[in-house]
Amino acid sequence: MRLALIAPWVVVPPIIGGLQIRFHQLQSLLARLAGAQGLAVWDLREGGPVSLEEPPLSDPRRPELAAFVPPHGVRALGLRLRHLWPGYVAPSLADQRRRLLEWLAQQQATHVVLVHPYASELAPILKRRGLHVFIDCHNVESELALQLAELAGSAREAEEARLRHLVFRRRERRCFPAADEVWLPSEEDVCRQQQVCGTGARLRLRVVPNALDLRQYEPPRARAPEATEAGAEAEAEAEEMLDIVYPAEFGYGPNVEAAALLSERILPAVRRRCPRARLVLVGRDRYGLVACLRREPEVVVTDTVPDVRPYLARAAVVPVPLRHGSGTRYKILEALALERAVVTTPRGAEGLALRDGEHGLVRELGDFDEAIVTLLRDRQLARQLGRNGRRLVEERYSWEALVPLLRAALEGSGRTSGQDGAC
Predict the structure, then answer these.
(1) In this structure, what is the dihedral angle of CA atoms 370, 376, 378, 380, given to the nearest 10 degrees?
(2) Measured between alpha carbons, how far is 194 from 207 in angstroms, rounded to an integer?
């Protein structure tokens, strides 16, 4: 097996947001499975092959690669009209398609992993060339685009999201049946994708969950203070353990919505009962969408940080009040891996084997403040939920648990979901 990955970009630390964590997971585990032959990687942002041994220098100011940039005005109308033709798929790789295909032939690749929606349009042509083709998905992208249209802050932004929905839905319906397998993060996403592609589509869908390299997530251990410093250290710990930490990429609509809910509705109710509680919004705010929520000392907005783990390690509670989105939430997995107590919504917990009262608290938004106050006051409960959550990640969402599943996928064995699945 000669394995190739066509990725939007090669991820090197610092890693920002769940999308990059998924890409890093994919490139790292595929490289491990490729063995001595090595993993051949084409970086779409660089427009050519790259080495994981010497990846391109990452510039946090550089814009991320867009899977599709919607046109405006007359061009947008033209795009809609062209999509009335059943065979039309809006191309995104026209400038490097020929070179990419020549490179795959030179590499003598036998198995190719394409990241959707950036490279999935290549699936039909690669299958015609006799390659084994796998498509990796972070979300059900066409459905997510419709959700983002609902959250749009302007008519133009909403129209762009609807055009992405149109393009991604057509790409999923036309290209996914050509692949040997399509990988999705959860069973819920598998069912959504089947619905998008239609009951007549011949699909092989496999759950490839989001996972963590647990060597990078060592839970903080409490140290017993010296007798002479017991009072001062206990007071400092009490102050520190009132941090309510929400880590996110704040260029993403559902995360901005969650941050606003925490700041404007949930935190004031929590502070009426726990006055020392503060909200810490940790993550890149490239468009300044959450900077307006800053009101220190009770609401801290960090913007980009080198590493989110120290902030999570100091958290008393990690709230995830999501109402939109798909995929499985890396922010929840990271918090559980560090033995932090999590409160989330049913939508936030979707796709995870997280049980209410055992690994975290699952609450509707109206009960979020009560759940957070409970965990701030009952530190024993918070610690127990954190320990249980860590065990769940070790068993279900670690790289070690994922490697056998990916190997089975590449070898064509193990369980997949088809149209006869229970969706």
Answers:
(1) 130
(2) 13
- Residue 207 confidence (pLDDT) above 80: yes
Residue 316 reports pLDDT greater than 90: yes
Nearest to 315 by CA among 348, 268, 280, 270: 280
Token duo for residue 324? 């939109």
Q: Using DSSP bridges, classify how beta strands 40-43 and 48-50 pair: parallel, antiparallel or unpaired.
A: antiparallel
User: Of the given ranges (218-232, 318-332, 400-414), which has the lowest mean pLDDT?
Assistant: 218-232
Residue 121 contacts residue 89 (beta carbons within 8 Å): yes
Q: Is the Cα torsion angle 142, 24, 20, 93 positive or negative in sign?
A: negative
